[in-house]
UniProtKB/TrEMBL annotation:
Gene3D superfamilies: 3.40.190.290, Winged helix-like DNA-binding domain superfamily/Winged helix DNA-binding domain. InterPro entries: LysR-type_TF_proteobact-type, LysR_HTH_N, LysR_subst-bd, WH-like_DNA-bd_sf, WH_DNA-bd_sf. GO terms for biological process: DNA-templated transcription. This is Transcriptional regulator, LysR family. GO terms for molecular function: DNA-binding transcription factor activity; sequence-specific DNA binding. Residues 1-59 form the HTH lysR-type domain. Keywords: DNA-binding, Transcription, Transcription regulation.
Length: 294
């Protein structure tokens, strides 16, 4: 019996919440994951998880074993990474997460240049507007466009962007240009979903934040789709400046309600704090800081 393997399986069950999720991640059957857990509990002589058809709950012994086992696994990973770094070669896989628009527009060219510099690294990028849980180990670096940060992680600011409001010249010619945010009630709006402010748009009014609930005609979690809809004259969109640069340059969109711009949002690279950072992680973060400074 491989106690180390069984400890890894147990920790991932705690972090992912189900046997089936761990089985999928490890490319094993759920029955095999159950077998590993049974072996571990039998070798320890204690029950680590109370299991029902609907939930998994740690016992007190399971909580203690997880906390110490997780630390041992992290210590071993750091030992392996620090030893590998002695070769002065940056290699391995780095897993990153980014918002759909920022990742799709900006991260691909950044990754292309990074891999030119460090060809022995592989980058696995997931695009999702919902921030991942860094503590479950599925992601090494999470890129966030936000003004709220988890105090339990390291956050390095790599860029800034403003949240602005845009429309096409054709739409404004047909519907008129809103002079104040109260005028938006008479306009077609294109709404970005899956944001911390929900159904509302945020504006700056005399130095204070004001929320406006718009009557949207199209909503999506994809900013590029909404910007394209705005460029086609379908309505008004509120989006980070970074997302609309190409549309502004082509003249397909123009900024409106400029006096109500929100303060800048920062783009952060976030990752867990640890005693030792592998070369692949430090090289990637340092590269991003330099890349977005240009």
């Amino acid at each position: 019996m491989d106690k180390f393997n069984n400890m890894q399986v147990f920790c991932r069950i705690v972090e992912l919440g189900t046997f089936s999720a761990v089985a999928k991640e490890m490319k094993l059957s759920t029955m095999m994951i159950s077998k590993y857990m049974a072996q571990l509990e039998a070798s320890l002589g204690v029950v680590l998880l109370n299991r029902t058809t609907r939930s998994l709950n740690l016992t007190s012994a399971g909580e203690a074993y997880y906390n110490r086992g997780k630390q041992l696994l992290e210590d071993l990973a750091e030992l392996e990474a620090s030893t590998a770094q002695l070769s002065e070669r940056v290699k391995g896989q780095i897993k990153i997460s980014a918002p759909i628009d920022f990742g799709g527009i900006y991260m691909v060219p950044a990754i292309e240049q990074y891999l030119r510099k460090f060809p022995e690294v592989k980058v696995l990028m997931s695009l999702d507007n919902k921030p991942p849980n860094l503590r479950d180990g599925s992601v090494d670096v999470s890129l966030l466009v936000t003004n709220k940060l988890d105090p339990g992680v390291v956050a390095r600011k790599i860029a800034e962007t403003e949240l602005c409001t845009y429309a096409s010249p054709a739409y404004l010619a047909a519907k008129g240009t809103p002079d104040t945010i109260d005028d938006l009630i008479r306009h077609q709006c294109l709404h970005y979903v899956d944001t911390p402010h929900g159904d509302f748009w945020l504006f700056n009014v005399d130095g204070e934040q004001k929320k406006i609930k718009t009557d949207w005609v199209l909503a999506s979690n994809n900013g590029r789709a909404l910007c394209q809809a705005a460029a086609l004259g379908m309505g008004i969109v509120q989006a980070p400046h970074l997302s609309v640069v190409s549309y502004l340059q082509s003249g397909e969109l123009v900024e409106i309600l400029r006096d109500y711009r929100r303060p800048s949002l920062a783009v952060y690279a976030t990752y867990l704090q640890r005693r030792f950072y592998p070369a692949k992680l430090t090289s990637f973060i340092d590269f991003l800081l330099g890349y977005f400074e240009r």
